[in-house]
Write the structure tokens for this entry.
Amino acid sequence: NSRVRDLVALDGHGKVMVVQGGASLRRSLLGDQLAEKAVANGWSGLVINGCVRDVEALSKLPLGIKALAACPMKTEKRDQGRTGVEFEFAGIDFVPGHWLYADANGLIVADRDLLVGR
């Protein structure tokens, strides 16, 4: 989660971070400390193709979080990962700069703001 740690420290106003964790269920990519930092820096949410931990604490934060599962194990810090790249998971193409909408039913990604004029 080295890149996640780097990005939550940046201004995230109006942004959702999408993390390609390779659908791994072995380690968590987000916990309460990084999520609190994301809130402090204005992030709207995180979508994680992997696990989170500290689920009870995460549920109380004003931050949208979607993940595959929970896992109590932290990641090993290896300073790996890339930012600003396009990828696919769950049948959705995630492209930097596209709009992401999420609720309890799932995710929608669009190349434009679908709420214009509302």
